[in-house]
Design brief:
The protein is α/β, with parallel strands linked by helices. It has helices at 26-33, 41-44, 49-58, 71-76, 83-93, 115-123, 143-151, 193-203, 220-234; strands at residues 2-5, 36-39, 64-68, 100-106, 131-134, 155-156, 158-161, 164-165, 176-182, 209-213.
C-alpha cells in the first residue's frame, strides 16, 4: 500500500486538493485518491477515541490508517512501564475498527538500545495489532533487538533520507514498512525514478508492504507516491489506489 504521512498540508491546495474544497473535506478527498495514510499527529497529542471513530466513518471500506504511537511512551516514559501508555493508546486508536493499520513506535535518537524494554512494550499489544519499530540510535541494531522483533512479529521500519537507508534492512515480520523522508531529486525534496525503482524492488521482498512518503513540502509526497504506484503497476505489482494522471 502506498500513501503519505498525513493529509493536512496547506500547500497541497491546488494540487491534490481543489482550490475551493473546504479543509473539512480533505480526508474524504484524500481517501478517494489513496488507500492508506500514516497519522503523525497522534504522536504529539493522542486524539480521543471519538476522533478515530470519525476517521473510520469518513473513509471508504478497505481504507487503512497507520498510527504513530504517542510520544508519552517513547519520549517521556522512554519505554519504562509501558503497559498503561500502550493500553491508553489502544483504547482510543481501536476506534478505527478494522481500518486500524500498523502502529508505528518511533524511538528518540537519544534512546539507547534496550531489548528488555522493547520486549515489555511489544508484549502489551494484542496479536491482531501490527506493530512497527523505528529505532534511531545505532546501539539498537543488535541480534538481541532483532530476536525481540521476530518473536513479536513486529516490523523494523525501513527509513530513507536522500537515498540512503537509515537502518539495517532486516525482515522481522511478514509485512514491510517504509518511510521516505527526503529525496535528492529536483524540485526538493522529490525522489528520482532510480530511487523509487530501488525502493519498489526492496519492498517486493515482503508479501505486502506499506510505503509512506513524508516529504510533504510542495506536494512532493503526493507526486512521489503517485509515481511509485504507477511504476509498480507498469511492473505488474499489485498496489493500492493513487491519483491518476499526476
Amino acid at each position: 500500500m502506498v500513501g503519505t504521512s498525513g493529509w493536512q498540508y496547506q500547500d497541497w491546495r491546488g494540487g491534490l486538493y481543489p482550490e475551493k474544497l473546504p479543509q473539512r473535506l480533505w480526508l474524504e478527498h484524500y481517501a478517494e485518491n489513496f488507500g492508506t495514510v500514516e497519522v503523525n499527529n497522534a504522536f504529539y497529542r493522542l486524539p480521543e477515541r471519538s476522533t478515530f471513530e470519525q476517521w473510520r466513518e469518513r473513509t471508504p471500506a478497505g481504507f487503512v490508517v497507520a498510527v504513530k504511537m504517542s510520544r508519552y511512551l517513547t519520549h517521556v516514559k522512554r519505554l519504562n512501564e509501558p503497559e498503561e501508555p500502550v493500553q491508553r493508546f489502544l483504547s482510543r486508536a481501536e476506534g478505527l475498527g478494522r481500518k486500524l493499520g500498523p502502529v508505528l513506535i518511533q524511538l528518540p535518537p537519544s534512546l539507547r538500545g534496550d531489548p528488555d524494554a522493547l520486549e515489555r512494550t511489544l508484549a502489551g499489544f494484542p496479536p491482531h495489532v501490527e506493530v512497527v519499530v523505528e529505532p534511531r540510535h545505532p546501539s539498537w541494531f543488535t541480534d538481541e533487538t532483532r530476536a525481540v522483533l521476530e518473536k513479536h512479529r513486529a516490523a523494523l521500519c525501513w527509513a530513507d533520507r536522500k537515498g540512503r537507508p537509515l537502518n539495517p534492512l532486516w525482515q522481522t515480520a511478514d509485512f514491510g514498512y517504509v518511510r521516505l523522508h527526503e529525496g535528492r531529486a529536483r524540485p526538493w525534496p522529490r525522489y528520482g525514478r532510480a530511487a523509487l525503482a530501488h525502493w519498489l524492488e526492496r519492498a517486493g521482498r515482503f508479501p505486502r508492504t506499506y510505503v509512506f512518503f513524508n516529504n510533504d513540502p510542495g506536494g512532493a509526497a503526493v507526486a512521489d507516491a503517485t509515481a511509485l504506484a504507477a511504476l509498480a503497476r507498469r511492473r505488474g505489482v499489485e498496489v493500492s489506489r493513487s491519483p491518476a494522471g499526476r
